[in-house]
Amino acid sequence: MQAPMNFRTAFNGFNREDVVHFIEYLNARHTAEVNQLKAELDLLRSREAARAEEENGQLEALQEENDRLNQQVESLNTELTTLNSRLESVYQEQSSPDLADQAEKEQLQAELEQLRKQYDALKAEKEDSSNVARELEAYRRAERTERMARERAELVYHQVN
Would you list the DSSP string of the chain? Predict the structure, then answer.
């Protein structure tokens, strides 16, 4: 429906039919705009929900990985303390080491050094995992802030128009 550009004049003002048609035109246009905006809002909400679900899945996977790494670190810690205590007992038992005991000590020291390297590597991997989780959370906050700013800007734009 097209709005009349000029109202025809009548005895006491404008032609009533022209005014009624113009009001109907404005009402139909407004209803169409509202329906379009509601459809866009529903689409954006569904996209946001899908994105939030995906991010929650990623966060859960990172948390599971972090838990696994924590368990490995704990097991290595217990093994490290056990080897340290064994090494200390061997040092205390022997005042003059012979060749067999010396070889055992060297083997224990090598195992201890290897476990320390594994422990350090797992600790670094755990820190990387927690850094990723923090970065993901910061990204989510930035996305929310941008979305809220965009919505406010659109609201102000629509109010101005």
Answer: ----SSPPEETTEE-HHHHHHHHHHHHHHHHHHHHHHHHHHHHHHHHHHHHHHHHHHHHHHHHHHHHHHHHHHHHHHHHHHHHHHHHHHHHHH-SS--HHHHHHHHHHHHHHHHHHHHHHHHHHHHHHHHHHHHHHHHHHHHHHHHHHHHHHHHHHHHHH-
